[in-house]
Please model this.
Amino acid sequence: MINFESQLARLEREGLRRHRRVVSTPQGPFTTVAGKAQLSFCSNDYLGLANHPALIEAAQRGAATYGVGSGASHLVCGHSTAHEELEQALASFVGMPRALYFTSGYMAALGVIPALVGRGDAVFSDALNHACLIDAIRLSRADVHRYAHLDLRQLEHDLAQSKASRKLVVSDAVFSMDGDLAPVPQLLVLCERYDALLLLDDAHGFGVLGSAGRGILSHFELRSARTLYMGTLGKAAGVFGAFIAGEAAATEWILQAARTYMFSTAAPSLLAVALLESLHLIESEDWRRVRLRELVDRLRRGLADLPWQLSPSGTPIQPLIVGDNRECLALHEALLQRGIWVPAIRPPTVPKGTARLRISISAAHSPEQVDRLVDALRSLAAQANVVHEQRALSAP
Model:
């Protein structure tokens, strides 16, 4: 038998065992964890919409109209008027001819990539792509070419060498653990040059980047028939699910071939009703993105000279690189003791030796709350410096 106890003990020794914390309040700047209020910098609710009264009212209205369950897959009897309206609204919002609504970003990736490529085809994947993309690429059974993070020279070399008749370049748009952007214009140039499709996973850019939050393509003012766009609706949109958008024929093919779309029960229609309201708020309330940028700038100024490296990122994802797993966990726990919740991210989510605090900023935060986090980290940095100096003095 597999010795699970020894495997769990190894994770514990290496500082890699994960623990769930039970939250008893809605998402927001403050969450109650184990009976204690924590100032939260954990959530991907970047625009502060997850607990918005208008979305709650829309979900209630959707439940009253459609019930709670959808009953079957979209291709049987689970595709409601609300789903149809949402897909049309999403396509229009991101400037694509058509969109399909999936139950989650993971399910979208697992369905879309194997629908596009298979044995004998080639996929070119950024080394820091999200796990859902990595797993989907493996599932496709296509030949995999993994290029170093943002390394366009290596990507072009691999594309030029490939003899595959179908090529697919896959990249996060905003990298989830680093907050940096994919060089989408250059990726598209290479796809044009070497006759490849480009799939962008804009999980962390949708609602945040571009005109009215339309995402990474709007941010770079790009549009191409070679591009398939994947957006997540449980982060900045504040609800649940994901979508894929692209040319009409490509999207229809995904509908016909993506197994996670064909064989999954459709998400409840009440979520589609809430998402239609969310799209309205994303588009009309630009002040949320303005505040977000201001808060990100405020945080970065405050943390500029700490002993831990703040990665270059202009997005709500602000990684503070600590390095050692146990030191990162200790910093996380010290913040919790001060009533501040910032997740400690360790391998295999990030490369070995790059454990970090992943600070997520929301438009729902206030400047004073950001300052509280900055003050706590600066205080902990000062304590860490004292400890290091004492160790240096006591060393033989």
Remarks:
- The chain has two domains: 22-47+287-394, 53-284.
- The CA atoms of residues 147 and 154 lie 6 Å apart.
- Confidence is low (pLDDT under 50) at residues 386-394.
